[in-house]
Every structure is written in structure tokens, then in C-alpha cells.
TrEMBL record:
Taxonomy of the source species: Bacteria, Pseudomonadati, Pseudomonadota, Gammaproteobacteria, Enterobacterales
Gene Ontology MF terms: lysozyme activity
Keyword Acyltransferase on entry: no
UniProt KW Transferase keyword: no
UniProt keyword annotations, A-Z: Antimicrobial, Bacteriolytic enzyme
A Gene Ontology BP annotation from the UniProt entry: killing of cells of another organism
Name by which UniProt lists this protein: Lysozyme
Tree of life domain: Bacteria
Stored SUPFAM superfamilies: Lysozyme-like
Length: 31
């Protein structure tokens, strides 16, 4: 999974599914 193109922004490409986004956000929130 690629990192967000812009940190804190919603500029992810359509390659990321909703599940992957939620998963990333979960890990992101723990940092």
C-alpha cells in the first residue's frame, strides 16, 4: 500500500480500497 500522496489530505489514488484506507487510518492514528 502506498502512503498518502499528501499527508493529512484526502488525495489517495483510486487504487486503495476503503478497507485499506481504514486500516491505514487506524495505524496512522496510533503514531
Amino acid at each position: 500500500l502506498q502512503r498518502w500522496t499528501y499527508a493529512g489530505g484526502k488525495q489517495w489514488k483510486g487504487l486503495i480500497s476503503r478497507r485499506e484506507i481504514e486500516r491505514e487510518v487506524c495505524e496512522w492514528g496510533q503514531k
